Amino acid sequence: MIEPIAATLPTPSTPSTLNTLKRRLGLTTATAVVVAEMIGVGVFLTTAGMAKSVGSPFWLSVVWATMGAAAIGGAFCFGALAARRPEAGGSYIYLKDAYGPRVGFLYGWLSMLVTDPGITAAVAVGLAEYVGYLAPIGPWGRKFVAMAAIGVLAGVNIRGVALGASLLRVLAALKLGLLGFLVFWGFASGKGDWSNLLPIVAQRPGSQPLVPALIGGFIAAFFSMGGWWDLSKLSGEVRDPARNVPRALVLGVSIVTLVYVLITVVFLYLVPLERIDDKQAFAALAGEVLFGRLGGAVFSWIVIITVAGSLSALLMAAPRVYFAMACDGLFFPRFAALHPKYGTPARATLIQAVLACVLVAAGTFDQILAYFIVPTVVFLVLTVFALFVGERGRSARTPGLIAAALLFLAPTTALLALFFMDSPLRAGIGLGVVLLGVPFSYLVAPAGTTANRTEITDQDPPGEVGRKFDL
């Protein structure tokens, strides 16, 4: 009989359950995390708005390629940081090392209370919307589906990193396979028209002026291609992290960039820009051209599988931040305990899932997330700068890493400035809420200690002694 998860949660007084994450994730799973996190519903929705405003296949491809290159530059930097500090926590660890524990805490505060549950809720609702296309379930039915998806995938990731990794690899493979088939059949079917891509460079009538259109496209592409950095949160569970984390980051980002460009081209081949009216019609029209009346259902299943992979990756990676904070004495110690049987940060995963479900039920996650775009990007920029800070940063000041950092920081800081100029009040409120975490950090950890951390080892976690996994 399988006992309920809640009944077997560890107590903080069980020392053997603390800080013993197992390095079980290989290059394949690490790459799957990157691919699953990055490819969500955005590839279907964002492309339409970008295509309509930019109005040029060439410039649309330039937008994807540019932001893909920026992401690859960031991936090199995060890979170097992960090689330096191969522990659970990602940006939290790097910010704490470079700027002190309070800054690391503020990143974790933002992640736990806003961005992680907010993004989790948004992704789950996106999945439910497409389930609603297949069955008339109504608004509350969609909320139930979204919360059920969060609960099921959180449970899978609590039950063990082996199970979560296996599911993630399957979903990532299905995602790439379906998108690959979509690209192949889109061209091979002959149902499109190459003249839709002409003129390649010139903008179509009705497009926005080029510069504002490109700026809007870069912003949309930045968020559509986000999430790759979450692999660094799992560095404590990746085998040979100094080698595999950087490789997985660069490989995953490169794969996704190629997929986004190919999907964009095949959509334009199937549907002329002049027929694009809104973001949902683009995918629906392409589906109708390829599959007739079944096009909407086919695309819905593709999106559901795609989004399920993103949701699973989020619920696997994000809780490692709160776990790492608790291990360092910067969060409640109960969250430093791993599940005694499954060896996973169960409490950290549960808090993310519960907060996400609350936001789904309230239906306010999109408004909340809008206030925290600027703080999120600020922490990304600070994380990349952290690579070069202090004594440890001296070894990173090589031409290659400096070039990679500039490749990421140039467009990212430009977008950050645009966000500030577009809505300074919203940006200020978001940053103000983040700073409210400072007094709370003194309540949780008055001394700002990081002395409680135990080195992550390759020992088998409790309840799994002798079991060997090579993922």
Automatic annotation (TrEMBL):
It is a multi-pass membrane protein. The chain crosses the membrane at residues 25-46, 58-83, 104-128, 140-158, 170-190, 210-229, 249-271, 298-323, 344-362, 368-389, 401-421, 427-445. Its main location: membrane. Pfam families: AA_permease_2. It is found in: Membrane. It comes from the Bacteria. GO terms for cellular component: membrane. InterPro entries: AA/rel_permease1, AminoAcid_Transporter. Gene3D superfamilies: Amino acid/polyamine transporter I. Keywords: Membrane, Transmembrane, Transmembrane helix. GO terms for molecular function: L-amino acid transmembrane transporter activity. PANTHER family: AMINO ACID TRANSPORTER (PTHR11785), SOBREMESA, ISOFORM B (PTHR11785:SF512). This is Serine/threonine exchanger SteT. It comes from Paludisphaera borealis.
